[in-house]
Structures are given as structure tokens and as C-alpha cells.
Write a structure and sequence with these properties.
The chain has 3 helices and 5 strands, in the order E-H-H-E-E-E-E-H. It is an alpha+beta fold. The chain has one domain: Hotdog Thioesterase (Thiol Ester Dehydrase, Chain A).
């Protein structure tokens, strides 16, 4: 089996993603609370999108990354209409595992952050394992 070349990905590689908070992104709409502000699961989605933006275009053909761990805080509320921007910075690459420092901010303040880990998989082999679960 050939060694997976992740040399284009290194500490300091960054990506970002943003979202204007709509009613569909609020806690009551996604089932994570009752107050109509940005839902934590949606903030997490924007954070994961930032990590994808940092590395997916650098992966070898036939490979993708999957989120395996997320440890974040969500410390400030964001009302409908404000833009949320997440950034992900690679802090370590060990084998197929890529670790990130992540932050999320709205137009006024930092709203959350922490760490995120992704693992690089061969899409064909991964799909085979998933299909075995279905059978």
C-alpha cells in the first residue's frame, strides 16, 4: 500500500467559512434550545466547513477528511442577521490525523472556539466499510 502524502498540509494552513444567521439557523429551528439565536450545532457546522476549506483541496485524489473529534465552547449569542465567520488552523499532522485550532466570531465578538480533529480516508475503502454495515 502506498504511503499517503499529506505534505501539502502543515501547521499554519488555514481555512474559513461564514454564514449570515437566518431564522433556519436558530436554536428553536434545529431543536437545540428555545431562544432565537444561532444554534450551537450550526456554529459547529460552520467550524467544520472552515476545516474543510483549509485542507480538502490539498488532499490526494480519492481521499477526503472526516471529523472525528470536536471540543468547542459556544460563549456568546448571535442574533438573526449577523454574519458568523469560523476559522480553522492546522496545528498538527500525525499520520492520517489532522488537528486544528478553531474559532468562531460574529460581527461584534468571538462567540466560540476550541479544537477539532479530522482523519483522512480513502473514499472507496471507507464506502466499502459503510456498505458492509448495511448488508
Amino acid at each position: 500500500m502506498a504511503t499517503l502524502d499529506l505534505s501539502p498540509i502543515h501547521p499554519g494552513t488555514t481555512g474559513s467559512s461564514d454564514l449570515v444567521v437566518g431564522h433556519e439557523h436558530t436554536a428553536p429551528r434545529v431543536g437545540s434550545g428555545r431562544i432565537a439565536v444561532l444554534a450551537t450545532p450550526v456554529m459547529i457546522n460552520v467550524i467544520e466547513a472552515a476545516a474543510l476549506a483549509a485542507i480538502e483541496h490539498l488532499l490526494p485524489e480519492g481521499h477526503q477528511s472526516l471529523g472525528t473529534h470536536l471540543d468547542v465552547s459556544h460563549v456568546a449569542a448571535t442574533p438573526v442577521g449577523l454574519r458568523v465567520t469560523a476559522t480553522a488552523e492546522v496545528v498538527a499532522v500525525e499520520g492520517r490525523t489532522i488537528a486544528f485550532k478553531v474559532t468562531a466570531s460574529d460581527e461584534r465578538e468571538e462567540i466560540g472556539g476550541g479544537t477539532h480533529t479530522r482523519v483522512v480516508v480513502n473514499v472507496g475503502r471507507f464506502d466499502e466499510r459503510v456498505q458492509r454495515k448495511v448488508r
